[in-house]
Amino acid sequence: MFGFFKIPQQLKALGILGMNARNYNVISKYNKRRLYPLVDDKVQTKEMAVKNGINTTRKIAIITYQHEVKSLKQLVKDWPEFVIKPAHGSGGKGVLVIKSWKDDAFITASEKILSYTQVYQHISNILSGLYSLGGQYDVALIEEMVHFSDVFQNFSYQGVPDVRMIIYKGYPIMAMMRLATKESGGRANLHQGAVGVGLDVKTGRALTAVLHNKPILRHPDTNADLTKLCVPYWKEHLLIAAKAYEMTGLGYLGADIVLDKDKGPMMLELNARPGLSIQIANSAGLKKVIKKALKNYPAGLSAEARVDFILSQN
Amino acid sequence: MKKFFNVRRVLSIFLLLSIAWTLYAGWYKMTFWGFDLKSDATTDVFMVDAHITFKAHGKPVKVVLSTPHGYSKFKILNEKITAKGYHVKKDENTGRITLSSPNRNGEQNIYYRLMVYDTADSRGKVRQEEKITIQKPIFDDEQMIVVDNIFEQAQNIEGNEVQQLISLFNQTPLDENVQTLLPVKATRKIRAELLIDLLALKNISARLVHGVRLIEGKKAAMADLMLEAYDGYKWRLYDLQTGHEGLPKNFMVFQRGNVSLLDVEGGVNSKIRFSVLKSVTSSFEMAEHRAKLSSTDKFFTSSVYALPLWAQNVLKTLMVFPLGILVVVLMRNVVGVPTMGTFTPMLIAMSLIETGFVPGLICFVLIVAVGLILRRLLATLNLLLVPRIASVVIFVILIIQVLAVIGYHDNIDVAMSALFFPIIITAWIIERLSIIYEEEGFKNAMTESFYTLLTAIATYFVIKSDTVRHITFAFNEINLVILFLVMLLGTYTGYRLTELKRFYPLLKRK
Ligand SMILES: Nc1ncnc2c1ncn2[C@@H]1O[C@H](COP(=O)(O)OP(=O)(O)O)[C@@H](O)[C@H]1O
Ligand SMILES: [Mg+2]
Fold it and tell me: Å from A130 to nearest chain B CA?
């Protein structure tokens, strides 16, 4: 019983960042509210990324008004595959990945066949704000589909593994890879049953892996040895993350990066209020790393120099 | 970090200030306005009737009545004199009422009615006053022997000289010596007068005080008496039965000093009868009157308590909100449970208060469940968002209607309580639940509903209590304390309770 009262102290000693501390001490301190729209709106993020030379998925079209929805087929006529998502979505809500389509049939990444009417309906729902925060009117972003690198094929059950990186003052300080499972239904959210693999920020190698808060060694569905996981093009990953700082001006942010077969690492989205599960995947506390960065990491370096600095750390 | 520390410090200072202010205001309201921490605190209001009768003989009549004035600290709520055909005049300085009328005949009835309250702090403070000249009684030698005996015996009794004599006069059976000096049928007044005579022999000035003991249901053919004796400096009051000194808290003085209780000129056979009735009023209702008496009514009239009753009732409901909000803030930021919408739980709690806990809860779950089923059917229609939510709102209204009708006809409270739930919020809960259910599965939907209800129930139990509602209204400064508490919680950076569980595995792994 008394052990219970010691938990906060012990967590503190580990440098675990809690939700209140994240909001009060970190986000409200380093992230100006007026900068939020830059990352909350995927269209803006994308435009900025292009301007800043950050590799990201290409925009195909934006549907803003209901009457534009019927021109969907016209808009994607040159694209055999594409992704529709709400510009203000979160948590994968409303993301529709179409891996092939013809006439009236749209096949999703999870092999579901949708009729044109269903896709039309889906876009209407996006526009009316079903998937966006507070139910405000939204726009539908149509972008190119990522061809996921085969490197991770065995590591993920369906779905798309992505790298989540936490960037503090432009320095990537913690990273994890999220792997979909059968239970998570192809989604990469840890609380829905996806696997989180903590990655060494310096190397991109797996450190620890967790499923439902419990450490695991193998993927529950594919049985792949998670300790062998190593993300290729790691330096490029780091560079994308580091550049996101200059691009947005946010002192604390999360970047979701996916690896495309042909185009390499691509920034999928940014987040001004990244979650805390990454600490569980890494078995490490963010507060501790932030403290260390605040003390030791030099300010005023370029993105490249910061990445080099990270790589030179021991 | 330093800057944040300062925010916290500033807020803490404000919190302390607001606590101090609340305590001060609370003391002020309790003292001057009679507010109480208990919601059902009452004040006894005594109605004292003095009924004066006498016979007039066609001559001009003048009646002078002494009334409570200055000496006793009762608060007078109302004073009324009913005397048909009399000219009434009251001297505010002496408290004496003069009634006059030319040429009256026959039985006369004059009613004097007084409503008083706050017997508690009625202990009269006696000012220094002149003593009166002592009129020594004349006793023959035989009687003087008895008197000496009395004095001798009295010496062995506890108390001062006055109390010693009073005790002696109250012995049962009555002291023989005293009996000898009294007529066979001695009234209390005659005894008291003998006492005064004996005191005069001891060079102590003493006199009678007329008044009424406030005893519920009392009917008395004459006024109650107390003894006043001069101690060389001021007049001290003594109870004629017990010898206790001081004004008992239920004794209301009508007359003291050199005037009489009742003077009737132009009439005979005058009598004054007293009756007392007690009624109980909520202390809150007396507040305005108290404010007036304590000349703090300037503040009172600009307070919420001077508003019309319906407005006060609205405010009473409003003022309990901050506390509900505090509960929600605690549940979310300190406990860390996810709830549907920030203040949904509080609104549910408010409804539960109207409906009663169990029936309300059952009814609410029922509405949501039926709503969810309808919402599932709706989902197959693939409607756009706004029309879809609008339909859910209408569903809710229809469900409420049906439940109300069923409830009324079959006399089921559970169903009737449907009328009290906020329609939009309920619709919104249904919509949100069905989306969580669709997207994140049954389990997540259940978890979130569970926590929402849990928070609602916690809030309900806090704001339900009459005492809490009374305190947040009567001592509404407390809402300032809550405000700064909530603000301070806005700087709370510790772990949430649920995070301890969430991050607990990390401790084991290390
Ligand atoms: N262009 C894309 N190609 C393939 N899959 C995608 C693409 N965009 C998104 N996804 C999938 O949808 C998920 C959620 O998309 P994301 O852009 O991160 O939106 P959200 O803000 O809702 O998380 C991603 O993790 C990925 O699995
Ligand atoms: Mg995402």
Answer: 6
Per-residue model confidence as pLDDT tens digits over B337-350: 988 877 889 889 98
The 10s digit of each residue's pLDDT in B437-463 is 877 778 888 988 999 999 999 999 988
Q: What is the Rg, in whole angstroms, of the alpha carbon atoms belonging to chain B? A: 36
Query: Where residue A135 falls among pLDDT bands split at 50, 70, 90?
Result: low
Whole-number pLDDT of residue B285 = 79
Q: What does the pLDDT read at residue B123? A: 44
Report, in angstroms and rounded to the nearest whole number, the Rg of chain A calculated over CA atoms. Answer: 20
Q: Roughly what angle, to the nearest 10 degrees, separates helices B321-329 and B344-355?
A: 130
Phi-psi region of A152 (alpha: psi -120 to 50; beta: other; left: phi over 0): alpha
Report d(CA B331, CA A203) in Å as an integer: 41
B422 CB-contact burial (10 Å; exposed 0-12 / middle 13-18 / buried 19+):
middle
* pLDDT given at position B122: 40
Shortest distance, CA B459 to any CA of chain A (angstroms): 22
Up-side HSE of residue A178: CA atoms within 13 Å toward CB? Answer: 30
Question: Could you tell me the sign of the dihedral formed by the alpha carbons of A243, A247, A253, A255, in that order?
Answer: negative
Residue B268 burial (CB count, 10 A): 9
Express each pLDDT in B399-411 by its tens digit.
Answer: 999 988 988 888 8
Question: Domain coordinates of chain A in residue numbers?
Answer: 8-41+149-311, 58-143
Regarding beta strands B262-265 and B206-213, do their DSSP bridges make them parallel or antiparallel, or are they unpaired?
unpaired
Specify burial of residue A53 (Cβ count, 10 A radius: 0-12, 13-18, 19+): exposed
pLDDT at A120 over 80: yes
B327 in Cβ contact with B455 (< 8 Å): yes
B121 pLDDT exceeds 50? Answer: no
ipTM of this model?
A: 0.86
Task: Give B 72-91 residues with CB within 8 A of chain A.
Answer: none
Question: Given the DSSP bridges, would you call strands B105-117 and B206-213 parallel, antiparallel or unpaired?
Answer: unpaired
Count of CB atoms within 10 A of residue A72's CB?
21
Domain ranges of chain B: 42-133+205-282, 339-472
- Ligand 2 centre distance from Cα of residue A293 (Å): 26
Q: Do B385 and A279 touch (CB under 8 A)?
A: no
At the top level of CATH, the class of A8-41+149-311 is alpha beta
For residue A255, give the 3-state DSSP assignment.
strand
Q: Among A57, A79, A71, A62, which Cα is nearest to A126's?
A: A62
pLDDT confidence band for B248 (50 / 70 / 90):
confident
Contact indicator for B296, B32 with CB cutoff of 8 Å = yes
Mean pLDDT (whole number) for B414-423: 82
Residues from chain B that touch A285, judged by Cβ atoms under 8 A, are 506
pLDDT in tens, B135-187: 788 888 888 888 888 888 888 888 888 888 888 888 888 888 888 888 888 88
Going by the DSSP 8-state scheme, the letter that residue B221 receives in this structure is S
Instruction: Name the fold adopted by A58-143.
Output: Dna Ligase; domain 1 (3.30.1490)
How many residues comprise chain B?
510
Pocket test for ligand 1, best of A45, A190, A268 (most atoms within 8 A of CB): A268
Asked which of A112-121, A227-236, B254-263 is least confident by mean pLDDT, the reply is: B254-263
- Long-range contacts (CB closer than 8 Å, 24 or more residues apart) made by A271-275: A271/A39, A271/A90, A272/A27, A272/A31, A272/A35, A272/A36, A272/A39, A272/A40, A272/A248, A273/A22, A273/A23, A273/A27, A273/A31, A274/A164, A274/A166, A275/A190
User: How many whole angstroms separate alpha carbon A260 and alpha carbon B394?
Assistant: 48
Average pLDDT value over all residues in chain B: 86
Beta pairing, strands A105-108 & A113-115: antiparallel
Give dist(CA B257, CA B95) in Å, integer.
13
Distance A88 CA to ligand 2 centre (A): 11
At a CB cut-off of 8 Å and minimum separation 6, what does A125 contact?
Answer: A94, A131, B384, B385
